[in-house]
Specification:
The complex is a heterodimer.
Chain A: H1 9-18, H2 49-61, E1 68-69, H3 82-86, H4 91-95, H5 106-123, E2 127-128, H6 135-146, E3 153-157, H7 162-174, E4 179-182, E5 184-185, E6 188-189, H8 191-197, E7 202-209, H9 219-228, E8 232-237, H10 248-251, E9 255-259, E10 275-279, E11 292-296, E12 302-306, H11 313-316, H12 329-366, E13 382-385, H13 391-400, E14 403-404, E15 407-408, E16 417-420, H14 427-442
Helix pairs in contact in A: 5-12, 6-7, 12-14, 13-14
Chain B: H1 44-56, H2 78-84, H3 87-90, H4 102-119, E1 123-125, H5 131-148, E2 156-160, H6 166-173, E3 177-181, H7 191-197, E4 202-207, H8 220-229, E5 233-237, E6 257-259, E7 280-282, E8 294-298, E9 301-305, H9 322-358, E10 363-364, E11 374-377, H10 379-385, H11 389-398, E12 405-406, E13 415-418, H12 426-445, H13 447-450, H14 464-469
Helix pairs in contact in B: 2-9, 4-9, 5-6, 9-12
Chain lengths: 443, 479
């Protein structure tokens, strides 16, 4: 059995003796005997490190890690430079807590301040918090910060990632407010429907860019439509796409969020990921979560502290803007190191590789009879095709070659496949994919 | 030291991206970014040294004693980190077919089984990413329970005034109004006031036991009975679970739903503020409302169950902070049946020993034994000498010790909340006790000097008022 208790039996005895006690049991005498646990916990006996390793490695071995991946839909496989793995693994970053004691936490505070700057730059927005749980909760918190006394309704485009819509729904229901889904038309937000749904009670509209189907929405125009009706405009962006695409700042967003996972975090079966949250200057005091600010110390030196805490739960209690206390600090650090490693040019290069390879793949796949592009608009690194046979059959054939194919869509899109191509996919892999699809379609 | 942006040199590079092996595609101008972001331009050497310097200016559990009350800053075993970085876990796409993720599903099912045993619950979800997120999930389960029974008048959640600020904030976020109940002298719930507060509008109670004063509320069965008799449900805030594992279970004390902080009790690291995991366990009566999907064992291996028509919905994309669950499972497997209770018993032993050793010098806010943490109050010293809890905390920085939680709970003036955890040795505790006694003597002799501390840290006390009044929250580049 493993143990992380360092004191020896003799030391434990000495501690009890110092207190005039004979057993630790005496320390638990406030617990009514009727509820005290009788007998041992029904969990296995402890293991040595060697045995634990073996057991965990066996569990990991029961998963299949695909050498080639053409699936995204909210989680994206990008290259993670070595330096991006090593720096956030430094023990000080891993084992510290929220930097309450600024004097001995300048490192983590500065790292968060730099992260906030990175996010302001990337999203082209003036304010960023220290991050929240993930992209979906960032969208939900974004909607919450837009709500006012008379404007409580949230609109969300049907073209957003389904998990995001579902999390927004949970949060809106929690606050006893309404969430309305704006229908799609040809794979993009139906603008006419949006105009009709916007009214005096609408707090905000959320759109994802590029959307769930990989298509670029007309974000500037959507922003104008929303603002004309006095509501707030929230954009949820893919951070890699921001290397090339028009920014939330350019499109007039009031709040801009993102799932930060593509910035150096592994797929990891869905988490931990990173919720990026930025907003306009006007909304700074409504943004939830931690914020680090610059100030000076007693000698006038630059110093960093947690700031604007009057918004937060430990001060405001039931009047707080959210109950969130923590951030995803280590993931935020990962994103910062990733952006430093890539630099502005590297980020643009990766975005361009995704864009070009996805278009090459789309061309190759759509040249195969039965695999047609479902939508015509401009897209980034994801696109939807039809499928001449049951998509499951396609996935099976690809799996045999070590390829994770695109995501088979469901509901009224059943029979269609959402493909994703990143810089990790070589031309050779794309050609193999196309050949395999040809074989399956021909059978 | 420099900000990373101040060390940036135009044209310097770290990672090279491979050449494009397909025809290049260009977006139309209307969709294109107009101005490149100001991101750092650095070599790998620059980056490595910058962050090494930042790491040196950061204090973690690996650096030393970290008795942050209510945060359970226990040692984070390295094996947990290594298991969480196995490619068989990190390389799995969340939307892979079920037959290719059996290992992940088994991890979640095993963690659920063991943690339910430890808490006395029947089912558990790992979707919540943090304690506060778990609280929201748990309170929404209570809301859904009443809603599904057509009991719509239950609009109030009862929270003791000693509770962490997240409890009332959560209740409001979940659409409830919050009723504060005063505490008795031991920080426990005042039973008469509780009886007055409950009624047909009571949805539930949020409580941590041991409470925020570090005392086990011996009236716990009476408390949960009062709520149940009024038709409400009981929520256990797992912040203080590290005191009682293997001794008593929330499920046996009358609680219906509990959140755990895997990053506290189950040794996963805090990471400077996250990622954590706020797993939520519940009794059978609340299980139909758990977030979807939920990993379950079937005839042909494990599956993700999406068919939960009464579920509160989704709390997070995908399935939660999976790699944190991997770490927690590694920890539970390591400690096992005997090690888990041993951890709690030593956490309580360490706290009591430290409190006892300090009690001749410092005022302790409570009487009798504590659980895994205790409260020092500097009220008297503040009144007599003008020395505050902050002053004592800042003096600790110069001793190379992370200070305890300050000014919490709010019901004790000038307080420090000390939680040593079980992973500290008697040697460390004795050293810290000696340091705290030195600090006390210094405060008695030269109280004025205390306001000047710390002097050995990389910065002196920061001006927090200035930071909030004129917020500078990102670096401003020269145009």
């Amino acid at each position: 059995m493993g143990s992380y208790v360092p004191s020896t039996m003799e030391e434990r005895q000495a501690m009890l003796q110092a207190m005039g006690l004979s057993s630790v049991d005496e320390l638990y005498d406030a617990i009514p005997s009727s509820v005290k646990l009788q007998g041992p916990l029904q969990i296995p006996e402890g293991l040595s490190e060697m045995e634990v390793r073996s057991k965990m490695e066996k569990l990991a071995g029961k998963n299949k890690v695909f050498p080639t991946v053409f699936r995204g839909a909210g989680a994206y496989r990008h290259y993670i430079p070595s330096i991006v793995k090593y720096i956030p693994a430094k023990e000080e970053f891993v084992t510290s807590y929220t930097p309450y004691q600024a004097e001995i936490s300048q490192g983590v505070l500065q790292a968060i301040f730099e992260y906030q700057t990175d996010m302001c730059q990337l999203m082209d927005m003036p304010v960023s918090n220290a991050s929240v749980y993930d992209g979906a909760t960032a969208a939900a918190e974004g909607a919450a910060m837009c709500r006012e006394r008379k404007r409580t309704k949230t609109l969300v485009s049907a073209t957003a990632q389904p998990d995001t819509i579902q999390v927004m729904e949970t949060y809106c229901q929690a606050a006893n407010t309404e969430l309305v889904i704006v229908p799609e038309k040809d794979g993009k937000t139906d603008k006419e429907a949006l105009k009709e749904l916007l009214d005096d009670t609408t707090a905000c509209f959320y759109v994802q860019q590029p959307n769930y189907y990989g298509l670029f929405e007309d974000c500037e125009e959507l922003g104008q439509i929303v603002h004309e009706k006095g509501a707030k405009y929230i954009m949820g962006c893919n951070p890699i796409a921001l290397g090339v695409m028009a920014t939330p700042g350019q499109c007039g967003a009031d709040v801009a969020t993102a799932e930060g996972q593509p910035l150096g975090m592994p797929l990891a079966y869905g988490g931990p990921y990173l919720g990026i949250m930025t907003c306009s200057e006007k909304m700074m005091r409504k943004i939830p979560g931690r914020i680090v600010g610059e100030t000076t110390d007693a000698e006038g030196n630059r110093a960093f502290v947690l700031t604007l805490q009057a918004r937060e739960q430990h001060i405001r209690r039931e009047k707080a803007s959210s109950n969130i206390c923590s951030n995803q600090a280590l993931c935020a650090l990962t994103a910062s190191v990733y952006l430093a490693a890539m630099g502005p040019q590297g980020l643009r290069d990766v975005a361009n590789l995704c864009l070009s390879k996805a278009h090459y793949a789309a061309q190759q796949i759509s040249a195969i009879p039965g695999f047609e592009m479902v939508y015509q608009g401009e897209f980034f690194h994801e696109f939807v095709t039809s499928c001449p046979v049951c998509p499951q059959k396609v996935m099976q054939a690809l799996e045999e070659k070590g390829i994770l194919g695109g995501l088979p869509l469901t509901g009224d899109k059943k029979g269609q496949i959402l493909w994703c191509v990143t810089e990790m996919n070589t031309k050779e892999e794309i050609d193999t994919l196309a050949e395999t699809l040809k074989e399956v379609a021909g059978k | 030291m420099n900000l990373i942006f101040e060390s940036s040199v135009a044209g310097r590079k770290c990672v090279q991206v491979p050449p494009c092996d397909v025809p290049e595609y260009q977006l139309p101008a209307s969709l294109t970014r107009q101005q490149a972001p100001h991101l750092p331009e650095m070599s790998e050497t620059d980056i490595s040294r910058h962050y090494t310097k930042l790491a040196e200016r950061t204090y973690g559990v690996n650096n030393g004693f970290y008795p942050l009350g209510s945060c359970t800053m226990k040692y984070n075993p390295r094996i947990n980190e290594e298991m969480a970085s196995l490619p068989g876990f990190t390389g799995v796409h969340p939307l892979q077919p079920e037959h290719t993720v059996q290992g992940c599903l088994e991890v979640m099912a095993l963690a659920e089984e063991y943690l339910c045993q430890i808490t006395g619950m029947d089912e558990m979800t790992f979707q919540p990413a943090a304690g506060a997120h778990g609280e929201l999930t748990g309170v929404l389960l209570i809301k859904q329970y009443h809603k599904m029974r057509g009991d719509t008048k239950r609009t109030k959640i009862i929270v003791p005034d000693s509770a962490h600020g997240t409890n009332p904030a959560t209740a409001v976020m979940a659409g409830f109004t919050c009723v504060n109940v005063p505490s008795n002298e031991e920080g426990g719930i005042d039973l008469d006031k509780l009886r007055e507060a409950v009624g047909e509008d009571t949805a539930g109670l949020m409580l941590t036991n041991p409470n925020t004063l570090g005392i086990f509320d011996k009236n716990i069965l009476e408390i949960t009975k009062i709520i149940k008799d009024a038709g409400g449900l009981c929520y256990y805030d797992g912040a203080n679970l590290n005191a009682i594992m293997g001794q008593v279970r929330p499920g046996d004390m009358g609680f219906d739903v509990v959140h755990l902080n895997l990053h506290k009790t189950f040794s996963t690291p805090h990471g400077g503020g996250g990622p954590g995991s706020g797993a939520v366990g519940c009794k059978k009566l609340l299980a139909p409302y758990l977030p979807k999907p939920h990993a379950v064992a079937g005839e042909n291996g494990y599956t993700m169950d999406y068919d939960l028509p009464q579920s509160i919905g989704r709390m997070k994309a995908f399935y939660g902070n999976f790699l944190v669950v991997v770490r927690a499972l590694t920890y539970v497997l390591t400690l096992g049946q005997k090690g888990i209770p041993e951890a709690s018993r030593n956490a309580v032993l360490n706290a009591n020993y430290m409190m006892h050793q300090l009690s001749d010098t410092y005022d302790i806010a409570t009487k009798g034994h504590c659980m895994h943490e205790f409260i020092i109050t500097l009220d008297k010293m503040h009144k007599e000498k003008g020395v505050t809890a902050t002053d004592i905390a800042k003096a600790m920085l110069d001793e190379g010790i992370h200070p305890p939680t300050m000014y919490f709970p709010l019901i004790v003036p000038e307080d420090l909340m000390v939680e040593p955890t079980e992973t500290e040795s008697k040697t460390t505790l004795d050293e810290v006790v000696a340091a705290l006694k030195r600090i006390h003597a210094m405060a008695e002799e030269n109280p004025e000097h205390m306001h000047e501390l710390p002097v050995k840290t990389v910065i002196r006390r920061p001006d927090e008022v200035k930071a909030a009044r004129t917020p500078v929250i990102c670096y401003h580049f020269d145009k």
